[in-house]
């Protein structure tokens, strides 16, 4: 499985319970419990959204402080196309962007030694921890079936 949903019908305004920042709306799915990457992405897709991918550090910090409701691991919208790879060249966003471009733009990195529950035949996804300064702007690898928090990001109409 790989994310393939394209958002063609954007919201004109944020739906009830979502929070607006610039040209997107955000919602923490944590109220329903933790979820794996595929389940989170599919739930976001139902709301014309994807798992959150920060476009810059200011957006990340805003979402962390105003949307994420628990101090725990949250999926970022990065997934790997190859089993057990930790090479950023094999990671893409749920919207199809190359993770290396996001890393350059935001000056972020993948944690060199943090691999959560990564087994031989699993494709990793990236997670970050809310309000843990040691993990800020650093992503950790985790298999995509590990449950975590998820924030959905829905782009608004131009």
Walk me through this protein's architecture.
The chain has 158 residues and is α+β, with helices and mostly antiparallel strands. 18% of the residues lie in helices and 29% in strands. The chain is built from three helices and nine strands; from the N terminus they run ββαβαββαββββ. The strands form two sheets. Strands 5-4-7-8-6 form a five-stranded mixed beta sheet, covered by helices on one side. A four-stranded antiparallel beta sheet has the order 1-2-9-3, sandwiched between helices. β7 and β8 form a beta hairpin. The longest helix is centred in the N-terminal third of the chain and has 10 residues, at 37-46. It is globular and about 40 Å long. The termini are far apart.
Short account of what is shown:
The chain is of the alpha+beta class. It has 3 helices and 9 strands; from the N terminus they run E-E-H-E-H-E-E-H-E-E-E-E.
Which helices and strands, and how do they pair?
Layout: E1 19-21, E2 24-28, H1 37-46, E3 50-51, H2 57-66, E4 73-80, E5 91-93, H3 99-106, E6 109-116, E7 124-129, E8 138-143, E9 151-155
Parallel strand pairs: 6-8
Antiparallel strand pairs: 1-2, 2-9, 3-9, 4-5, 4-7, 7-8
């Amino acid at each position: 499985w790989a994310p393939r949903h394209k958002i063609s019908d954007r919201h004109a305004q944020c739906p009830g319970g979502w929070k607006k920042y610039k040209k997107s709306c955000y919602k923490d799915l944590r109220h329903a419990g933790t979820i794996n990457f595929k389940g989170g992405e599919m739930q976001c897709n139902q709301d014309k959204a994807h798992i959150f991918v920060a476009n810059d550090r200011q957006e990340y910090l805003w979402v962390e402080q105003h949307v994420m409701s628990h101090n725990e691991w949250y999926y970022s919208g990065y997934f790997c196309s190859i089993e057990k790879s930790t090479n950023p060249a094999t990671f893409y966003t749920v919207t199809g962007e190359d993770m290396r471009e996001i890393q350059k733009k935001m000056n972020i990195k993948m944690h060199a030694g943090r691999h959560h529950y990564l087994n031989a035949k699993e494709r990793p996804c990236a997670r970050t921890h809310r309000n843990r300064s040691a993990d800020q702007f650093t992503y950790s690898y985790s298999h995509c079936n590990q449950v975590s928090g998820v924030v959905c990001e829905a782009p608004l109409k131009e």
